[in-house]
Each structure stands twice: as structure tokens, then as C-alpha cells.
Amino acid sequence: MFTRKSFSKLYEGVMEPFKIIGNVYFVGTFPASSHLIDTGEGLILIDTGYSDTLFLLINSIYKLGFSPYDVKYIIHTHWHGDHTEATAAFCHLTGAKTYIGKKDAEKVKQHFIPDYLLEEGDVVSLGNTQIEVMETPGHTEGTISLFFKTTENGKTYNVGTFGGAGANTLVPERYDFEGCREAYIDSLNKLRTRKVDVFIGNHVWNNDTEVKSEILRTTGENKFIDSNLWGEFLDFCENRLKEILERENKQ
Ligand SMILES: [Zn+2]
Fold it and tell me: What kind of fold does domain 18-250 have according to CATH?
């Protein structure tokens, strides 16, 4: 678990879109995940992906029977291009409005100009869905994590993201901001206070999207429902930072 694949060309990372649970759908690629929420009064998209995979995103939305023109809001987990590059073109096409964490507002301007900025405790509401925002700096200063509920077969599930798990910016030559390591640990502790039944990663390796989608498709068993994975993933993130620190101490 928690291992990655790489591709020479981004569009080779094509993935079949599918319903994860309730009103939550996967519309991303191997290089970067995107999720679609059908609120009953319009769609919310979480992250858009690389510009090279914009056509895959649009195709995935159509394949599920939705229209990209019904996307009202796009929420971005952080400013990096793998989550935001496709946004400008998507919004030009559809008129969707964009959200991002307040502290990523300046840096994201190299990819798109955000309409709204999000802070701790903000709630993005549309139709049947209320998405709570938690500031979780570390990977970038403005990384946000998102929490909302979805219902399937009369059961309600807590869905959660960790908006910036990557340790690639926790090494000094790639710091997004001073104090990012301490902030990352604080964020992990904050994230642990949430109960998450369905963890949706912003990269497929976070939650084994590929394997689980295949099991769901072939057997109907939904392994995305897993109340332990959230904690396990946060432990994995913490251990990875510890390993970086240990390597440094040995040098
Ligand atoms: Zn990133």
C-alpha cells in the first residue's frame, strides 16, 4: 500500500471514472485524483489535474452521465500544478467558480485566479452537501483538507481528504514556507481528531484507488468504506517525515 506508479506521458495515466459511494465519484487520473460530488443542485469538483489531462477529466464527467457545464464550484486542495493546471481552461469552458486555501492564493495565480478563498472552519454549501474546510499546512502553506457526509442505502458516511500529504516539499531545498515541518506535524495531529469512514486521496496511491475500484467493479464490495485507513495513512505520513529527519541526522 501507499506506493506509486509513474508515467512518461501524463495522459497515459487514464482511469475509468466510477462512483465511490453515495454522491461521490472519481474522475481523476493516475497522476492526480479529482473527485466529483453531485449535490442535487449542481456539481462540485475537487481538484482538476494537469492541463495535459483536462480532456480526460471532461471525458470522465460525461462518461458518468454528468455534464461539465453543471460544475458550479471547484475546490482545490493546494496550489501545485498537478491539482490546478487544468482549472483555467475548465472554467473558461464552463464558468465554474473556484476556491482555494487563503495562504495558497498568491502562488496559485501562476495557474488560475481564484474566485473565493477558504479559511479554517469555512463551509462550502451546495444542494445536499456541506463541505467543511480544515487548514492543514505543511506540504504547502495553504493546503486545505475537506470533510463532508454522504449517504448510501440509508447509511451516512464521513468522507475526508488530506489535501497535501506529499513529503517532497518537506526537504529544505523544496520548502514551500518556513516552519513547514512543524506545521505538517500539527496538521497530522489535527487531522487525527476527525472520524473518516471513506478516505478519498488526492493521489490514487493515498487510498489504493486502482485496486479498490477494480474490486468494486467486479464484486460489488466497497473497500473504500474503511474507518481504519485514515489513521493508517496519517501514521504513514508521520513516519515518512521521521525518516527524512533520521537521514539528515546521519549525514
Ligand atoms: Zn503538491
Answer: Metallo-beta-lactamase; Chain A (3.60.15)
